[in-house]
Each structure stands twice: as C-alpha cells, then as structure tokens.
C-alpha cells in the first residue's frame, strides 16, 4: 500500500480595481457634498454660540485640559504658529486624497473599504453639523484664545458674515481629525511594515494643530473618533482571499485533511 499527500494549493487574489472614472466621480462627489452640506448649517449664529458655551463648560466639568495650554506652546514663536496654521490649511484634503489614490493603486480592496468608511463618517458628521451648529473656540471670548490664523496667517476663513465658501459653525465633529485618524488606521491595516504605527503621528499632530489654532475643542475630536469607531465597527476591512488552483493542479483541500491518492486495494 502506498500513498502520497497532496498539499493544499492556492494563491492570494489581487482584487480588481473599481473603474477609475466611477471612483473619481464618487470621491469628487464626497468632497462636493462635504462642502455644500456644511452650507446648510449656516445662519444659526445665536445657537452656535450658545452651544459653544455649553461645550466649553462641559469640558471644564470633565476636567479636560484647556485648549489654551496647547496654544501657549505655539505662541512661543511666530514661525511655529505659522507652520501650524499652514498645516491646518493645506494638509487636510491633500493627505486624504493621496491616501485614497495610493490605496486605489496598491490595495484596491482596502481602497473600497476606506472610501466607504470615509463616506459614512462624513455623512454622519454633516448630520451632526446640522443638528448642533457650534462656534469654534477662536470665536468664543470666554476661552481667551487667539485666532492664530487671523493674527499670524495664513487663514482659510474670511469673516463669518461674508464667508460663503465654508461653514465656520460646523466645529463638531472635527473632520480634520476624523479623516486624519482614518488615514492612519487605513495605512496600518493595509501595510505590513513594522514601522506602520508611526502613521498615528499624523492624527496626533492634527489634533494638536486643530486645538492649538483654536479651530476645535477637544470634544470635537472625541466626537469624530466616536463616529469613526462606529463606522469601522459596521464596515469591516477586507480579508485576504485564496485563488482557485490552476487547471490540472488537482483538487484544493485544507492542509489538515490530506487526501490519499493511488492507495492499493
């Protein structure tokens, strides 16, 4: 009686990339909805300032560190605060777009997952912007904070009454932080380098920048992280697949259950 064991065969599947034109339209649509949706919350100045006072007092009740402790570090020199303002103004959209493009080219399955998560977080954030208009701390006199972008530059905002390109009363949740955190998580999940946890420096730096420039409260970042956590719980990352064996290569079976071939009767 003789026998041989056939090992399991298979190789990872490389998922097909979604059509580039469709994805371009989807991602462009996401950014357009993000911009236009924020406009719907404009015109609620009184409510936005009342909510800002409530958030500020809630943070003190929770004994969160004051945002001024971060801003004081930036105000040690003009150069540092200008770098923070530039980071706030220029990194948010390009970093997220570069993240999506890289995933699309190198990790198509992860790209679809990340795009869905970002879309879900953005949609939920827009709903919260409408339900809870919130003036940022730079507008609230009670905080004692400096509007660093207005004083030192560069600034992406004009006076709230005449700024028709953005809704400055959409502080909570902070999509600056939520998107940055998703970029870091997405790259950690999609890559295998032992250095990949360093991607968390991006949301960490973003958090210090949005708080130190007085554009967001701590709780704005907490709300964004909570929305992202919920989206990640509902939208699972892809798992590696196994391709079917090539024709003539034999039947693929689990390794722990070998098949006896050619056994003598």
Structural account:
This protein is mainly α and 265 residues long. It has helices spanning 20-39, 45-61, 67-74, 78-90, 92-106, 108-131, 148-152, 175-190, 201-212, 218-234, and strands spanning 4-5, 11-12, 242-243, 260-261. It has ten helices and four strands. The strands form two sheets. It has a two-stranded antiparallel sheet with strand order 1-4. It has a two-stranded antiparallel sheet with strand order 2-3. The model is unreliable at 241-265 (pLDDT under 50).
The stretches of 5 or more residues where confidence is low (pLDDT under 50) are 241-265
Which H/E pattern describes the elements? EEHHHHHHHHHHEE
Count of strand segments: 4
Major sheet: order of its strands?
1-4
DSSP helix fraction: 55-70%
Shape summary: globular
Query: What Rg do the Cα atoms give?
Result: 25 Å
Q: With helices defined by DSSP (H or I, 4 residues minimum), what is the helix count? A: 10
Terminal Cα span: 8 Å
Strand content: under 5%
Q: Which structural class is indicated by helix and strand composition?
A: mainly alpha
Give the biggest sheet: 2 strands, antiparallel
Averaged pLDDT: 82
